[in-house]
Design a protein that fits this description.
The complex is a heterodimer of chains A (about 325) and B (about 350). Chain A has about 325 residues and is mostly helical. Chain A has two domains: about 1-75, no CATH class; about 95-310, Orthogonal Bundle (MetI-like fold), CATH 1.10.3720.10. In chain A, about 80% of the residues lie in helices and about 0% in strands. Chain A has 14 helices and no strands. Chain A has helices spanning about 1-30, 35-40, 45-55, 60-75, 85-120, 125-140, 145-160, 175-210, 210-220, 225-250, 255-260, 265-275, 280-305, 310. In chain A, α9 (about 210-220) packs antiparallel against α10, α11 (about 255-260) packs across α12 and α12 (about 265-275) packs antiparallel against α13 (about 280-305). The model of chain A has no long low-confidence stretch (mean pLDDT about 85). In chain B, β10 and β11 (about 235-240) form a beta hairpin. Chain B is an alpha/beta fold and about 350 residues long. An eight-stranded mixed beta sheet of chain B has the order 7-8-9-3-10-11-13-12, sandwiched between helices. Classes of the chains: A mainly alpha (about 325), B alpha/beta (about 350). The interface between A and B is medium-sized, with 25 and 31 residues.
């Protein structure tokens, strides 16, 4: 198990190198002059030349890549052109916001998705199943920005139950965080809840038809025991596999949702950076998001091996 | 010879399945007894209703599609048709053990052998984990698994098919059942392993005197193990009786067909005969005797009305209107009926 974890960590290194190379390449490939953007429409050619020098844009490709990697290993991701602050500092400031939102969404997804799926499978072809699956279908088909706007109109404007957005740090005011984060988390999670509920239902139905479930019943196991001890572990194997993907969607999908709910997270940060051609910010954000996703996927893989003994032997 | 009540007595068991294409009757009015310490062979082609009969007895058929009805199913002095789900659950894995056909898929892939083996013990008896573990090791040793204490921590994929089926037998035996329902326990295994496992079952049976309902489609297995035979065809009992009676004086053309399908190693080698045709579809059953369309002895009378069970001797009966004739003819040298 330990060796497996180490091996998965080692496999992450080349991937991270590739991602950093791609993020470096962005600066070289995308049209548009960052210096011109930063200097504004009134800048003189001399201003541009000076700015390119300070940004290192005038140096050769090889020198640039050398500087990029030297700085990267020192933990220096450069200065954000728009904010004028170190990229790493901004990313570290903003990431807890997005990560806490993603975790909240993930918890909602797992709790609601799994339980809706399990209940639907247990009441297969009954009205409970049909209602659950209609809900799942709505969840899958409704776009999150539309859902977010509708929720704002309903819960903030008409009912006044929840704030329209913003962000309250969790450790300062947990209740406030909860109120502010619920609508963004729900609109982020809705589609994933629908997907997970459908996956859980179909997997559960398949597992319940397996011979080992009949064996469990033949041993005199109660229905609860059959579902939670014998079926659930097997259902969780494919579920955990998609959890990695779900998490990456929750993290990267937050660009739109953070914008709608005015949440100052990584998503909103990257959105603005892209619009403003803030290349160092885009690069840094990309590397950061990739690193987080890699780590999460390793966690998922290790969890998968822990759940399924057949994977462990390899 | 002392007479006791049978441990299992089934009267008029029927099972139907409801699906998208309507309702089909898979088991139709089946009755037989199993005495204490007796091995009853339940034989028939695939789809003849053997497994459905066994699963129906202990309520293991899917509740949303299957409907089981019976006049009475007496087990150990109580009527299972009147038993609640809870009471049935207490019997399953306790007084009634089950072994299934597919050792490869009958064990849960994500649970350790030990946990799966200790589960019925812990469900049915108030016993510590430690004591259940020790009992598990004992059981594994009893079914012939080498280094049983280590195997307790293995997962099913680490064992071969034969070993897994031994584990299944250990699970079924864990609470010293009075009745073992063995649903083709050796069919999926290769021949040498089949023989080993049958010997193991017979050995344990001789020691514990539990009753066994042995479902199989092999006449050879029946000849080797069973005391009594119930031959099923298309959801009905074709013939039943003591094993020697059935082999010496088969009273149903289907039983004879099954016997002629089995190769003999002694005597003159002969070409194996097959029974022409196949089981009728449950949704398009022929009227009258269900075997009639495949039977070369069928008369016009066979095609109307369900054939009654005709007694052919003590506890030997056949659902063939020509049974008496057949029994006398089977005394003639082979080939005389052609």
């Amino acid at each position: 198990m330990f060796a497996y974890t180490l091996r998965r960590l080692a496999q992450a290194v080349p991937i991270l190198l590739l991602v950093s190379l791609i993020s470096f390449g962005i600066m070289q490939l995308v049209p548009g002059d960052p210096a011109a953007v930063l200097a504004g429409p009134n800048a003189t050619p001399d201003d541009l030349i000076r700015l390119r020098e300070t940004l290192g844009l005038d140096k050769s490709f090889l020198t640039q890549i050398m500087i990029f990697y030297t700085n990267l290993f020192k933990g220096d991701l450069g200065y954000s052109i728009i904010l004028g602050e170190p990229v790493l500092k901004v990313v570290i400031e903003r990431s807890p916001i997005s990560i806490s939102l993603a975790i909240y969404s993930l918890v909602l997804t797992i709790v609601l998705g799994l339980s809706i799926g399990v209940v639907a499978a247990m009441k297969h072809n009954r009205w409970v199943d049909q209602i659950a699956m209609s809900f799942a279908l709505i969840g899958v088909s409704v776009p999150n920005f539309w859902l977010g706007l509708v929720m704002i109109v309903l819960f903030s404007v008409h009912l006044g139950w929840l704030p329209t957005g913003g962000y309250v740090p969790f450790f300062e005011d947990p209740a406030g965080w909860f109120l502010a984060a619920t609508m963004p988390a729900l609109s982020l999670a809705m589609m994933q809840i629908g997907l997970l509920a459908r996956l859980t239902r179909s997997t559960m139905l398949e597992v319940l038809g397996q011979d080992y479930i009949r064996t469990a019943r033949a041993k005199g196991a109660s229905e609860a025991r059959v579902i939670f001890k014998h079926a659930m572990n097997n259902v969780l194997i494919p579920v955990v596999t998609v959890l990695g993907m779900i998490l990456s969607v929750l993290l990267s999908g937050s660009v739109i949702v953070e914008t709608i709910f005015a949440v100052p997270g990584i998503g909103a940060l990257l959105g603005n950076a892209i619009l403003g051609r803030d290349y160092p910010m885009i690069q840094g954000g990309l590397i950061f998001v990739a690193a987080v996703l890699l780590i999460l996927n390793i966690v998922v893989d290790v969890l998968y091996a822990w759940l399924d003994p057949r994977v462990r032997v390899q | 010879m002392t007479r006791t009540d049978p441990i299992l007595s089934i009267e008029g068991l029927s099972t139907s399945f409801t699906g998208d294409e309507g309702t089909v009757v898979a088991v139709d009015d089946v009755s037989f007894d199993v005495n204490e310490g007796e091995i009853v062979g339940l034989i028939g082609e695939s789809g003849s209703g053997k497994s459905v009969t066994a699963l129906g007895i202990i309520g293991l058929l899917p509740k949303d599609t299957a409907r089981v009805t019976a006049k009475r199913i007496m087990f150990d002095g109580r009527d299972l048709t009147q038993a609640s789900d809870r009471e049935l659950r207490r019997l399953r894995g306790g007084s009634i053990g089950m072994v299934f056909q597919e050792p490869m898929s009958s064990l849960n892939p994500v649970l350790k052998i030990g946990d799966q083996l200790m589960e019925p013990i812990r469900i049915h008896e108030r016993i510590s984990r430690r004591a259940a573990f020790d009992r598990g090791v004992e059981l594994l040793a009893k079914v012939g698994i080498p280094s049983p204490a280590q195997r307790m921590n293995d997962y099913p994929h680490q064992l071969s098919g034969g070993m897994r089926q031994r584990v299944m037998i250990a699970i079924a035996l864990s609470c010293s059942p009075k009745l073992l329902l063995a649903d083709e326990p050796t069919t999926a295994l290769d021949v040498t392993i089949q023989a080993q496992l049958l010997d193991l079952l017979l050995e344990i049976q001789a020691e514990t005197r539990m009753a066994i309902v042995l479902i199989t489609h092999s006449m050879g297995v029946i000849a080797e193990c069973a005391d009594k035979v119930v031959v099923m065809y298309s959801g009905r009992i074709a013939e039943q009786g003591p094993v020697t009676e059935i082999f010496d004086r088969p009273g149903h053309p289907y039983t004879r067909g099954l016997m002629q399908c089995t190769p003999e190693l002694t005597g003159n080698p002969r070409r194996l005969t097959t029974i022409p045709g196949s089981l009728p579809s449950l949704s398009a059953l022929p009227p009258g005797c269900r075997f009639a369309p495949r039977c070369d002895l069928a008369l016009d009378a066979c095609r109307t009305g369900r054939p009654p069970m005709i007694g052919l001797g003590e506890k030997h009966a056949s659902a063939c209107i020509r049974a008496t004739e057949l029994v006398t003819r089977s005394m003639l040298p082979e080939g005389a009926e052609a």
